[in-house]
Specification:
Elements (H helix, E strand, L loop, with lengths): L1 H13 L19 E5 L2 E7 L7 E7 L5 E5 L14 H23 L11 H6 L11 H14 L17
Antiparallel strand pairs: 1-2, 2-3, 3-4
Bound molecules: zinc ion.
Length: 167
């Protein structure tokens, strides 16, 4: 965390353009346009593999490691059969790239040793919870407000609200 803050400061002092951290560079933005650790959850928005108009909202909750996946219109994901579906697989993979094992394990309160976690599958294997329905808007509204920042006209002034996103 400290090193991220340092690099952020360095970048902002050199230029108004904030570079992505190296760990975030290989993110599959088209497949998973939004992933965050927020309010004790790893959550995000995952594109449908087949329908460009459809997105899935997926989350994993801290402590219980309960999870859920539905469309943004609250239709349950057909891939959820007591196990995380492919959208949750993607969410975990992208979260792993974005935040690293340690932050995910700490946020979700998992009893894994981050040093022994080498990929997203190790994290998924430790999920002991089951499907637990939540309203997709809980996550989706955060995605939409993030998009509103993406749609801001570009200028060379920093947008303070975006700082959390480049971490
Ligand atoms: Zn799904």
């Amino acid at each position: 965390m400290a090193s991220n803050k340092e690099s952020l400061t360095t970048h902002t002092s050199q230029s108004s353009i904030i570079k992505k951290s190296s760990s975030a560079q290989d993110r599959a933005i088209k497949k998973v346009p939004f992933v965050e650790l927020y309010a004790g959850r790893l959550q995000g928005v995952v594109s449908s593999g087949s329908d460009i108009e459809r997105v899935y909202v997926s989350y994993i909750e801290a402590g219980t490691t309960n999870f859920y996946c539905s469309t943004n219109n609250n239709r349950p994901c057909g891939g959820l059969r007591g196990r995380p579906c492919k959208h949750l697989n993607l969410l975990i993979s992208e979260g792993f790239l974005q935040f690293g094992a340690k932050r995910i394990i700490n946020t979700l309160g998992m009893t894994l040793d981050p040093n022994e976690v080498s990929n997203a599958y190790d994290i998924e294997s430790a999920i002991a919870g089951g499907p637990h329905k939540v309203d997709a808007s809980m996550v989706f509204s955060r995605f939409l407000s993030y998009l509103s920042y993406v749609n801001l006209p570009s200028n060379n002034q920093p947008v303070p609200e975006m700082a959390w996103f480049v971490k």
